[in-house]
Design a protein that fits this description.
The complex is a heterodimer of chains A (407) and B (402). Chain A has 407 residues and is α/β, with parallel strands linked by helices. Chain A is built from 15 helices and 18 strands. Chain A has a 5-stranded parallel sheet. In chain A, helix 2 crosses helix 5 and helix 6 packs parallel to helix 7. The N terminus of chain A is likely disordered. By secondary structure, chain B is α/β, with parallel strands linked by helices. In chain B, 38% of the residues lie in helices and 16% in strands. Chain B contains 12 helices and 16 strands. In chain B, the strands form 4 sheets. A 9-stranded parallel sheet of chain B has the order 4-14-13-12-11-10-7-6-5. A 3-stranded antiparallel sheet of chain B has the order 1-2-3, with no helix packed on it. In chain B, helix 8 links the parallel strand 13 and strand 14. The chains are: A alpha/beta (407), B alpha/beta (402). At the A-B interface, helix 1, helix 2, helix 11, helix 12 and helix 13 of A face helix 1, helix 2, helix 10 and helix 11 of B.
Chain lengths: 407, 402
């Protein structure tokens, strides 16, 4: 007979793993889908998964203080190595004793490697076996090189709880031999990252599964990287505008194979719909700029979709954004007021606070439903609210069906 | 009566200003707002500020959209809505027609209307429109409509016009107010204009004092936050001393028992000078403007040391300065050990959080200054000491930055 859902299991680790750096415990598993609730103990904080990580690119969450983030229930945030490496730079971060201390954030931090930003933000960047060659925007005309070793060194100074390997990432629209080349190089770069990663730093390193939209390449990458026996794994190279029906299949392929006793971080995802579905597919950690970026332009997140508060239809709407939402914005202000104050920076903060609360609460609702053994029901209700006409996108139906939920 | 004098010492005095159940001690400043709320600070952050004045200063141009929405709500039957309920505000509100945080370009006022600059673009407003809008917003207090478009370099004729127009606007506003039940419980301040001409200022003060107003706003005498002194038509250099002469000529013509509010004198040394010349209330747009320039107020209320009263966080000297803005400051920025290095990073990275932290600090420090001023004013010796301390810091600072 099935055992109680809320049984805590301690997975045994390979003896080379240092459990003071990352301690992963299974709290509950959904009986139908692949969703599960974990606690992941990290050096600065223990996080509950599935979890959403807001993005604080330049060492600050746009307009929101660390105290406000804590009050929202945020447990872990992401910062970008590329931006921080430029400004304030490694010297300042070292002198400050790391990013936690520099920005006054006491909970968990994750840094990306800097590679993706370089390739996507810079006009002149070139990938070779050595690393990513780029024209430093602060020193035009001269090329700098970001190697796996250098990325790790910067991330060590930043001092996040979780660092990401430098990967050779290609856009999902790229096809042909470049995809395989990038995946295999990412494996080689993973080895270089792991080799140069200091044992003395209170930080774990996550590999990033690449292989584009090719199932075989993904399989190869999964096999190689799992063999390296990391503390957790990221699924990268997605969320680039690819077709959703391929997207979910790649995610599912990865979660099927990745070890169950380690957290899975799906990079760059995403919108509330994606969070629900990818939790069902067995992902544990997510990050996305969406709630903060869209909050700053007055778009509020709700279960039925979004409210574009700057539109004139909200001029006299005296309801809060969401009457079920416990955030400060919804407890204090109306949609009409937020519409009227749109030219002030305060409106950015107020909508951002709501959006972050929404996403973080969504993850809490997901976890609670898993713990109460009613996650499939939660998913169905969520979908019915989001798609009031009951016309569900094909990929949503397929993805959920693959893990036992029929809409 | 919205004001009572607690102690009168010669020209200056300690008092208490109350509007619709919200009181504050004077000398004090109204809390500058944008869109009906404090700039940059969400309610949780705002609540960390000590000595927060309970009267909000609401410039009409930046609640224009709110006024439109309230009008629509009234049209659809919800006549109970006013500005305070629309903005979920606990403060009582005092409305002025211009926004000191966004100084308006001059030269656009006409003989029967005044130009204001909401985000949708220039609007010409007359007393009729102004009062009917106020009737919908139902503030606890407001300035009469005024022509404050006089610059230091303007001719005497222009200054004379500002006085005449403003008096005519005042009479119109008073008349409309007496017939508008929505404004029955609002107090109205008469506005003293006259540019930088002594006789015009005297006339404005005397004439306004004869009207049944509840207080006085002294307008268009301030700095707009630049210290340049230029000559007016009479070839009087508009020096700080000259401004105070004009101010004194005004305050000595105003009844003692009514409050005096001044615009454009927010820098602490100027505040003390105006206070000594008989002013009770100030606006708090100064910390807002300082913040927008990435500056922090770090002056001392008690000691003169070699450091500047204000610092510019964009200066690279702070890149590795891991000290807080002020050692014993309890603002949400300093109290959480936010360092100058981090603020410098936020400022150079153009992060929104820079303004949140800087403004919280600047407000806290500014209100603390007023609180100390009220205590120091209890006896002449401590008041002189504080005046000398603050003015010396600024004197040194201004001579260095020239």
């Amino acid at each position: 007979m099935s055992s109680p859902v809320d049984q805590t299991e301690n997975y045994t680790f390979n003896c080379s793993m240092n459990s003071s750096l990352l301690r992963c415990n299974l709290i509950s598993k959904c009986h139908t889908t692949r969703a599960r609730v974990l606690t992941v103990g990290l050096p600065h904080y223990s996080i509950d998964t599935p979890q959403f990580m807001p993005v604080g690119t330049q060492g600050s969450m746009k307009g929101i203080t660390p105290t406000q983030l804590e009050n929202i229930g945020c447990q872990i945030i992401l910062a970008n190595t590329y931006h921080l490496g430029n400004r304030p730079g490694v010297d300042v971060l070292k002198a400050a004793g790391g990013l936690h201390s520099f920005m006054g954030w006491n909970r968990a931090l994750l840094t990306d490697s800097g590679g993706f930003q370089m390739v996507s933000l810079l006009d002149l960047s070139e990938v070779s076996e050595e690393g990513v060659k780029f024209e430093d925007p602060h020193r035009p005309g001269s090329m700098s090189l970001l190697t796996p070793e250098r990325s790790i060194a910067i991330q060590e100074v930043i001092g996040a709880d979780i660092a990401m390997q430098l990967d050779d990432v290609v856009h999902t629209s790229v096809t042909g031999p470049r995809v395989a080349e990038a995946m295999r190089r990412s494996v080689r770069w993973l080895d270089r990252c792991m080799k140069s990663h200091s044992k003395d730093v209170q930080q774990v390193l996550f590999p990033i599964i690449q292989g584009g939209l090719d199932h075989e390449l993904r399989d190869e990458c999964l096999e190689e990287m799992i063999r390296r026996n990391a503390y957790g794994y990221a699924i990268g190279g997605l969320s680039g505008g690819e077709e959703k029906r391929i997207f979910w299949r790649i995610v599912s392929q990865c979660t099927e194979v990745l070890p169950a006793d380690k957290p899975r971080y799906l990079m760059g995802v995403g919108y509330p719909l994606d969070l629900v579905i990818c939790s069902a597919l067995g992902c544990d950690m997510f990050d996305c700029v969406y709630p903060t970026r869209t909050g700053r332009i007055g778009t509020a997140l709700v279960d039925t979709g979004t409210l574009d508060l700057y539109k004139s239809v909200y001029k006299t709407d005296m309801e809060p954004i969401d009457s079920d939402c416990p955030c400060m914005t919804c407890r204090t202000y109306t949609r009409a007021y937020l519409h009227c104050v749109q030219s002030e920076s305060v409106s950015c903060h107020l909508v951002t606070i709501h959006n972050l609360t929404y996403q973080i609460r969504l993850m809490e609702r997901i976890r609670n439903s898993i713990l109460n053994n009613c996650f499939p029901q939660f998913v169905q209700e969520f979908m019915y609210r989001m798609f009031a006409d009951k016309i569900f996108p094909e990929w949503v139906v397929e993805a959920l069906e693959s893990v036992g939920i029929k809409l | 009566m919205c004001f009572s004098v607690e102690h009168q010492f010669g020209l200056h005095r300690l008092g208490r200003f109350s509007l619709r159940g919200r009181s504050m001690d004077t000398p004090g400043c109204l809390c500058y707002t944008r869109g009906g709320v404090a700039p940059h600070l969400t309610p949780d952050n705002l609540s960390t500020i000590n000595n927060l004045p309970q009267v909000a200063h609401i410039p009409l141009p930046n609640v224009f959209k709110a006024a439109e929405s309230i009008e629509l709500l009234h049209d659809s039957g919800d006549t109970s809505m006013d500005l305070s309920s629309f903005t979920s505000s606990d403060f009582s509100s005092f409305i002025s027609c211009q926004d000191l945080g966004n100084p308006a370009p001059s030269g656009f006022n006409l003989s029967h209307s005044v130009a204001i600059w909401p985000s949708c673009g220039k609007q010409l407003i007359d007393p009729g429109w102004y009062m009917s809008t106020l009737g919908r917003l139902r503030p606890a207090g407001f300035d009469s409509l005024s022509d404050g478009g006089t610059r230091e370099s303007d001719k005497r004729k222009r200054a004379g016009k500002s006085v005449a127009r403003t008096l005519s606007f005042l009479d119109a506003c008073l008349s409309i107010k007496s017939h508008n039940a929505d404004l029955e419980n609002s107090v109205i301040f008469g506005v003293i204009e006259g540019g930088f001409y002594l006789e015009e200022r005297k006339t404005s003060a005397e004439e306004t004092a004869e009207r049944p107003v509840d207080g006085f706003t002294i307008d268009a005498l301030g700095y707009n936050y630049s210290d340049t002194t230029t000559c007016n038509d009479d070839s009087n250099a508009v020096t700080p001393t000259f401004r105070l002469e004009l101010l004194e000529a005004v305050t000595e013509r105003l009844p003692t028992h009514k409050p005096r509010l001044i615009y454009g004198f927010g820098r602490p040394d100027n505040v003390i000078d105006c206070f000594l010349t008989g002013v009770d209330l100030f606006d708090s747009s100064y910390p807002y403007i300082i913040t927008s320039q990435a500056r922090a107020l770090v002056f001392s209320n008690t000691e003169i040391d070699s450091s500047a009263p204000e610092i510019d966080l964009s200066d690279p000297q702070y890149a590795q300065d891991f000290t807080p803005l002020l050692p014993n400051c309890r603002c949400l920025c300093c109290y959480k050990h936010v360092t100058k290095a981090y603020l410098h990073h936020l400022v150079t990275s153009k992060e929104l959080l820079a303004s949140v932290y800087l403004f919280a600090h600047n407000l806290q420090h500014y209100f603390e200054f007023f609180s100390r001023l009220r205590i120091a004013a209890l006896n002449p010796e401590s008041l002189n000491k504080m005046k000398s301390c603050i003015s010396q810091q600024y004197l040194l600072y201004l001579s260095e930055t020239k």
